[in-house]
Design goal:
single chain; 429 residues; mainly alpha; three-stranded antiparallel sheet; 6 strands; binds acetyl coenzyme *A
């Protein structure tokens, strides 16, 4: 039976349809409410607002579930590759062997970056944050790769997806090499997506990089776990900016800018900085936990809490295991990991964290993993951005294919001054 919600305002009752998702999630459809009632709904931060119906990612924050196109991330991180998962997110189904091979060839074919773009990289100030550079460069891609009239829309879109997925990875490694003043290493056709990235980052004419398949697997897992997370801040930014029908490069550039924030993608960097701060202060996490609980202190435990997960972040569990295995393999003791473990032990038993449902999120471990691979701290969020590209692309694609696509234009309740007259400057007190 169809469910209906009713809303009574000024003695009049309005019926609002109830929408039920494939996993039983429910929503009250208020899309006609303003027209019918004259009222809008108020939801700062949109925490109770569904901005779309989507068939890409399902997450249940109470149960700690995350699935891409129905498939649990636990299975994908164990059996899939980042490229295959990207294909799944963008196209809705796992690829056949032939489809995967075609997709991989396309990524390889579009992996080079226009040589003229090097001038941009060279002229950014040395201390510019890589996320700011990446956001600008992705926007600039449009100027270097304009739409060609002889291509069909579908061809153009598929090429744009491939360019973004492969060139952003190349640009990230390229900007790292340039920041060191080292020779840029080009992508190689014989390497997989993740192996290629590691090679572009760490190969050098004086010290050839030996590809370690275990490290490649760690990177596959890291990027698979970051590939999508439904309507988070950066994805919502991509959809919102994309709703104005700008080109995809501009929409993704907006997503990268949103991801940069320390409350979102910047948290993996913030976690390492916090652990380092604890280490520099003698290594005892206790005073930091006290500060995190203090209402008069703005300090928060980075890598703890999530706006949706009110239990363990399922990605954090996988990342934790990956992290421990990696450190064991590298036979490397990381004092920051020891601090992270002690911090977690204390925090998860603390009534403040229990009562506030604050558990470690993915960023709590991913920073240590990236550090162990050799990724420099200021590139951590760039690594997240590369991983999130398939999600941003698939969410953008879904939104433009939606027959009910609308320009996103939220409303507000104005609480400023009532109408008043302009006062000439000499008459103002
Ligand atoms: N440390 C201490 N207290 C916290 C923390 C934290 N990390 N996170 C939330 N709280 C407290 C708040 O002070 C607030 O307390 P109060 O109700 O007593 O005033 C309560 O928990 C709710 O906080 P909100 O900010 O309203 O919760 P929300 O769910 O919106 O926040 C967020 C989610 C922004 C991620 C928050 O937990 C946080 O700032 N965490 C640290 C940053 C971080 O790790 N971000 C990564 C998120 S995962 C990702 O983007 C991949």
């Amino acid at each position: 039976m169809k469910k209906i919600a009713s809303l009574t305002l000024d003695g009049k009752t309005y019926e609002l349809p109830v929408v039920i998702g494939s996993e039983g999630e429910t929503a009250i459809d208020i899309s006609k409410a303003r027209k019918e009632t004259g009222f809008i709904t108020l939801d700062p931060g949109f925490a109770n607002t569904g901005s779309c119906q989507s068939s890409i990612t399902f997450m249940d924050g109470q149960k700690g579930i995350l699935r891409y196109r129905g498939i649990p991330v636990e299975q994908l991180s164990e059996h899939s590759t980042f490229v295959e998962t990207a294909y799944l997110l963008i196209n809705g189904e796992l690829p056949t062997r032939k489809e995967l091979s075609r997709f991989s060839i396309m990524l390889n074919d579009h992996s080079l970056v226009h040589e003229d773009m090097r001038a941009f990289f060279e002229n950014f100030p040395k201390r510019a944050h890589p996320m700011g550079i990446l956001s600008s460069m992705v926007n600039a891609l449009r100027a270097f790769y304009p739409e060609l009239p002889e291509r069909s829309d579908e061809e153009e879109i598929n090429i744009t997806f491939a360019r973004l997925l492969s060139k952003v990875r190349t640009m990230a490694a390229m900007s790292y090499k340039m920041s060191l003043g080292h020779k840029v290493i080009y992508p190689r056709h014989d390497l997989t997506y993740c192996a290629n990235f590691l090679n572009m980052m760490f190969d050098s004419p004086v010290r050839p990089y030996v590809i370690d398949e275990d490290l490649v697997k760690v990177l596959e897992v890291f990027w698979i776990l970051h590939a999508d997370h439904e309507q988070n801040c950066s994805t919502a930014a991509v959809r919102l900016v994309g709703s104005a029908r700008v080109n995809l490069y501009a929409a993704i550039s907006a997503g990268i800018a949103a991801l940069w924030g320390p409350l979102h993608g910047g948290a993996n960097q913030a976690v390492i900085e916090m652990l380092q701060q604890i280490y520099d202060n003698g290594g005892d996490p206790a005073p930091f936990i006290v500060r995190a609980k203090d209402k008069n202190d703005t300090f928060r435990l980075m890598g703890f809490g999530h706006s949706i997960y009110k239990t363990y972040d399922p990605r954090a569990r996988i990342m934790e295991k990956t992290c421990h295995k990696l450190l064991e393999k590298l036979n490397r003791d990381d004092p920051l990991l020891d601090i992270a473990r002690r911090l977690e032990e204390v925090a998860v038993k603390d009534s403040y964290f229990i009562d506030h449902n604050l558990y470690p999120n993915i960023d709590f471990y991913s920073g240590i993993v990236l550090r162990a691979i050799g990724i420099p701290l200021d590139m951590f969020t760039v690594m997240f951005a590369i991983g999130r590209l398939p999600g941003w692309i698939s969410q953008w694609k879904e939104s433009i294919d939606d027959p009910k696509w609308k320009l996103h234009r939220p409303r507000q309740i104005y609480i400023g001054p009532k109408m008043r007259d302009y006062i000439p400057i000499d008459e103002r007190s």
